[in-house]
Structures are given as structure tokens and as C-alpha cells.
Amino acid sequence: MPRQLPMPPSRLPALIRTDFSDDAAWNDLVTYLLTERYIEDISDNMAAYVAPIDDRQYEGMTMEELLEMVPNLDYDPSDPAINWDAQPKHFPNEPDRALHAYIVDARTFAKPDRPILAVNFFLDHGQYFRLAAEAMVLVEANLSIGNLDFGDYDGGAEIEPDHIYRA
Predict the structure, then answer these.
(1) Does domain 18-67+101-165 have CATH number 3.40.50?
(2) Is residue 14 scored above 90 in pLDDT?
(3) Any idea of the CA torsion for 133, 55, 6, 88, to the nearest 10 degrees?
């Protein structure tokens, strides 16, 4: 039986570490993401609400391999019993599992702005984009409340020459 992708102990999306070449860089990135800072766009202090997963069983795994670990859900997206407005960013059959996650891989640590891979696990399964670590707070807030979706950011990432979304 294939392993399942880790489920954080809350509804927070996972921040999955797949590159273990630099512990200090990982720790700095996690500290940066989880520390509240002033965000000019919203005129308030915020941190990224993610659950870091630091487990060597995911070492070297690709996005495709991680996607294979997402449970196959028995759902019908047109089912009127699924209230997408009330719970837009969680699996209908598993309300404690976020619909997306973030992958910290070798490419993340290869660039100074630490581009993290965001992956959609549910609707448009496998849709993804990269975002600079500094953009994580606003991106995560918007994805989690359903204000914006992956398509909004994927288009923005394509505008940048290196395909990385920056706030």
C-alpha cells in the first residue's frame, strides 16, 4: 500500500521538506515563514500559517511522487451536499486536510529568494506554481480563505521571466 502524504495536526497546509542538504537554510526559512512581520499590502502583522514537515522519508521526492501519495477521494464535485463556500479549501471527506501544500526542494535553496513550490491536491489536481518566500504570507492567506486560487497565481508566475510569483 502506498504511503499517504503527511497530514499536519491542524488544517494548516504542509510545508514539506524534500531537500536535506542544508539544515541551517531550512531552519532559517521556517523561522522566516512562521515569524509575524508587517505586511504593507494589508497594513498588519502576519505570518505564514503552514505546518513544517521535516522528515527524511520525503528526501529527494518530486512533486509527482508526492502527488501519488495523496489519497484517492471518492467525491463528486457537482454534489450539492458539498458546500464549497462554507469550506472552500479542505477535502470534503477529510475536513482536517488542506487542499494544497508547499514543497521545499533543492531549487528552493538554490536561489536567494527561496522559491517554494505550491501544489494543488484537489481541484485541478497537480496544478502548481513557485512563489518567493517573501510572498508566502499573502499567497497562503488568499489560498486558504478562497479569495484567490491557483490559476490566479500561476498566471502571475508566468509574467516573471523565471516563473516565480513575487508579491
Answers:
(1) yes
(2) no
(3) -10
